[in-house]
């Protein structure tokens, strides 16, 4: 274990459970709101570009590749337990925000042919059973939240874009934690993330505002957390950020992490050689 930074399994476990609980609730929210949304698309500035359904698949691929980069980063980083703890917690925090927003406000999908692209909606309350929602949730879980664009889908997971969330978050994490010798990779992941976000808009999987809001929220949460923990401990007290619940949890998660010992280097598990 790297000197000066103790391994804290309970805090890591908390972050992991927090993250997957948020993901599960996002799937549950989508399974529920699908029956309540209007299928008439809202106006959007992106409609000046013709809808291209095939690009949605490219967006899924980009999201998967960036997620894979994030996983590799967590495995190879010298302080993998600290990085993983932060990534799971921040990812969970943003996904909880998304779960709340999509549950509260039901925005129609942006597809021109929404009544064809979306699954049949159950309007009769008698047929809205737990079994129905459970089957939908299981289907989403099997696809890790993704859906086959060539089949009718559950609609309503808007405000804000989950694809943009993971693309932007992965790119920011790679840029922040990758060793300086491999800095070029962070530029590539950032460019790929932008391409992926454009794909989401052109395919009408998300409105342009969904993508923009997801970018703003993800950037804000990631930046304010890391800006706070970079501050010397004695300077953190009584700051505006210290009043946020996000930061109160950060104080607990980071209480034993000494930044003097933290360095962005790659080190294979069980090996001493670093990059």
From TrEMBL:
<feature type="transmembrane region" description="Helical">
    <location>
        <begin position="55"/>
        <end position="76"/>
    </location>
</feature>
<dbReference type="GO" id="GO:0005789">
    <property type="term" value="C:endoplasmic reticulum membrane"/>
</dbReference>
<dbReference type="GO" id="GO:0000139">
    <property type="term" value="C:Golgi membrane"/>
</dbReference>
<dbReference type="GO" id="GO:0047493">
    <property type="term" value="F:ceramide cholinephosphotransferase activity"/>
</dbReference>
<keyword id="KW-0443">Lipid metabolism</keyword>
<dbReference type="GO" id="GO:0046513">
    <property type="term" value="P:ceramide biosynthetic process"/>
</dbReference>
<protein>
    <submittedName>
        <fullName>(pine wood nematode) hypothetical protein</fullName>
    </submittedName>
</protein>
<keyword id="KW-0812">Transmembrane</keyword>
<dbReference type="GO" id="GO:0005886">
    <property type="term" value="C:plasma membrane"/>
</dbReference>
<dbReference type="Pfam" id="PF14360">
    <property type="entry name" value="PAP2_C"/>
</dbReference>
<keyword id="KW-0472">Membrane</keyword>
<feature type="transmembrane region" description="Helical">
    <location>
        <begin position="88"/>
        <end position="107"/>
    </location>
</feature>
<keyword id="KW-0746">Sphingolipid metabolism</keyword>
<feature type="transmembrane region" description="Helical">
    <location>
        <begin position="213"/>
        <end position="229"/>
    </location>
</feature>
<dbReference type="GO" id="GO:0033188">
    <property type="term" value="F:sphingomyelin synthase activity"/>
</dbReference>
<feature type="transmembrane region" description="Helical">
    <location>
        <begin position="158"/>
        <end position="178"/>
    </location>
</feature>
<keyword id="KW-0808">Transferase</keyword>
<feature type="transmembrane region" description="Helical">
    <location>
        <begin position="185"/>
        <end position="207"/>
    </location>
</feature>
<feature type="transmembrane region" description="Helical">
    <location>
        <begin position="12"/>
        <end position="33"/>
    </location>
</feature>
<dbReference type="GO" id="GO:0006686">
    <property type="term" value="P:sphingomyelin biosynthetic process"/>
</dbReference>
<dbReference type="InterPro" id="IPR025749">
    <property type="entry name" value="Sphingomyelin_synth-like_dom"/>
</dbReference>
<feature type="domain" description="Sphingomyelin synthase-like">
    <location>
        <begin position="155"/>
        <end position="227"/>
    </location>
</feature>
<comment type="similarity">
    <text>Belongs to the sphingomyelin synthase family.</text>
</comment>
<dbReference type="InterPro" id="IPR045221">
    <property type="entry name" value="Sphingomyelin_synth-like"/>
</dbReference>
<keyword id="KW-1133">Transmembrane helix</keyword>
């Amino acid at each position: 274990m790297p000197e000066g930074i103790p391994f804290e399994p309970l805090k890591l476990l908390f972050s992991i459970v927090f993250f997957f609980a948020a993901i599960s609730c996002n799937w549950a929210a989508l399974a529920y709101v699908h029956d309540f949304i209007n299928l008439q698309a809202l106006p959007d500035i992106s409609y000046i570009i013709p809808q291209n359904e095939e690009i949605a698949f490219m967006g899924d691929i980009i999201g998967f590749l960036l997620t894979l980069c994030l996983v590799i980063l967590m495995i190879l980083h010298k302080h993998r337990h600290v990085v993983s703890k932060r990534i799971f917690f921040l990812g969970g925090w943003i996904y909880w925000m998304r779960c709340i927003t999509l549950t509260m406000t039901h925005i129609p999908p942006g597809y021109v042919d929404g009544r064809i692209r979306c699954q049949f909606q159950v309007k009769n309350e008698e047929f809205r059973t737990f079994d129905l929602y459970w089957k939908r949730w299981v289907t989403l879980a099997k696809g890790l939240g993704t859906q086959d664009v060539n089949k009718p889908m559950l609609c309503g997971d808007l405000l804000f874009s989950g694809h943009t969330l993971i693309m932007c978050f992965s790119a920011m994490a790679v840029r922040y934690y990758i060793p300086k010798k491999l800095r070029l990779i962070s530029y590539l992941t950032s460019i790929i993330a932008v391409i992926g976000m454009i794909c989401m808009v052109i395919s009408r999987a998300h409105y342009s505002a969904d993508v923009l809001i997801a970018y703003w929220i993800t950037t804000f949460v990631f930046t304010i957390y890391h800006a706070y923990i970079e501050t010397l401990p004695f300077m953190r007290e009584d700051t505006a950020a210290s009043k946020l619940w996000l930061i109160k949890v950060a104080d607990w998660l980071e209480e034993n992490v000494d930044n003097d010992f933290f360095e962005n280097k790659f080190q294979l598990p069980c090996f001493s050689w670093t990059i």
